[in-house]
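Re: the 95-residue chain
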Amino acid sequence: MQHDFYIPYGICNFLYVIFKPFLPAPRTKELGIYALLGYRKSTILSLLTAENLLSCFGAFVIGILLGGLFHKGIVFGITKLLDLTVNNSEIPFFN
């Protein structure tokens, strides 16, 4: 029962190591340079907001496209596995 703790702990540590470069702590030098260049806090905030919105929109579009490809691949794999006669061109990219 005590060993059940290690699996989620290991998963959390793995994810932390993978996503650590994307955390905001390393951005302090960049924000300091912006401040030294004379940017106001509102301008820095608008830059960071625009960057985050572009990142979110890009991730959304890539996720939708990869999800559609994954869906089509899964359906194609199931039809081949079960030897079904399905016209794969009729399978929608998005369901």
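The longest helix spans residues 41-81.
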